[in-house]
Amino acid sequence: MIRVLLTDDQHLVRAGLCALLENDPEIEVVGEASDGQQALELVQTLDPDVVLMDIRMPGMDGLAATRRIREDDAAPPVLILTTFDDDEEVTGALRAGAAGYLLKDTPGSRLREAVHAVAAGESQLSPQIMRKLMDRVAEEKPQPAAQSFSALTERELEVLTAIAQGRNNAEIAAEMYLSTATARTYVSRILTKLDARDRTELAIMAHRAGLV
């Protein structure tokens, strides 16, 4: 069971998210916070597996709360879910330690998949957010040496390209006729071979190398 803490200043939004998430028998919403400060307190008392976090809230906003939560190495991953796709907020959230960034028009099934993914240690970005991130952050990352990519097999290059296009492991598995576990193994190998921190960095490297 994945224990989720919802953080959003609008009660109706929290109610809708709770209903969407709990359509999955493996997800349980264990608490709701209306601002960042309350989220910090509930993380300590409820020990959730994933924190679903809005950004723009009165009092402590989602970026500040994410940064505070992620100061603890044992803290749960934070998945941003917001209406806003502003470049500064996207990069600010990722630098604060968020494991993912989704928009509120994300389908319910995709949201549930993202919760499972971040609970398993993966990163998650909406495809449109991935493209914005590429345009905003790519120049900050050195282009990988040619020999780094030459270490990848043809299949690993295909998986890397799919990551850069915003695909999650389940989508990669379906497109390439693999099991989800095999797709996850490919991603782990690529992370190791390219000495990358997470999927976001892999996507940036692929973009810089012209794979997408």
UniProtKB/TrEMBL annotation:
GO terms for molecular function: DNA binding. One of its GO terms (biological process) is phosphorelay signal transduction system. PROSITE patterns: HTH_LUXR_2, RESPONSE_REGULATORY. Residues 3-119 form the Response regulatory domain. CDD domains: LuxR_C_like (cd06170), REC_NarL-like (cd17535). It holds the Pfam family GerE. This is Response regulator.
